[in-house]
Task: inverse folding
């Protein structure tokens, strides 16, 4: 008898526990490109806080000058601080590739170029990058994984 009373209660409780999260709208290449470009626009602002706001708190990063990846926010903020100290400018992405991973994640890969302060000169630096973006619960987009490396020297150099 008790089990007959409990069955309607269990079904009622299960109905109350329904996920209220609505499905994300379909992600397009154009939207993913806009998200990546918004994040990249902070890279030359000189604003360390704005740059780090583009990354999830537990983002895993590989810096071109570091031997190992890190998810330690203090370490990755230090890398970003070093980048800001170079006073990067004229940032642009060459040959971007977007790969959609469902509606809540995508990968942006390409070659980035930017100028840096080196005394009175402003040489252009080139790097290869892969950024994995993920839509957060609040609807914002954050980089959850980043790999930056310097391109190999052309043959004969």
Result:
């Amino acid at each position: 008898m008790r089990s007959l009373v409990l069955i309607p209660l269990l079904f009622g409780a299960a109905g109350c526990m329904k996920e209220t999260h609505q499905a994300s709208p379909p992600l397009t290449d154009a939207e993913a490109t806009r998200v990546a470009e918004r994040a990249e626009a902070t890279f030359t602002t000189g604003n360390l806080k704005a740059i780090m706001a583009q990354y999830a708190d537990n983002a895993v990063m590989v810096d071109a000058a570091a031997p190992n990846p890190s998810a330690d926010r203090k370490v990755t903020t230090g890398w970003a601080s070093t980048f800001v100290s170079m006073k990067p400018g004229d940032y642009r992405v060459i040959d971007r590739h977007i790969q959609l991973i469902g509606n809540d994640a995508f990968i942006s890969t390409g070659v980035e170029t930017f100028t840096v302060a080196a005394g009175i000169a402003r040489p252009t630096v080139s790097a290869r990058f892969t950024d994995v973006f993920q839509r957060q619960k609040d609807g914002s987009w954050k980089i959850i994984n980043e790999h930056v490396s310097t391109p190999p020297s052309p043959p004969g150099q």
In short: The two ends are 85 Å apart (CA to CA). The chain has one domain: 26-149.
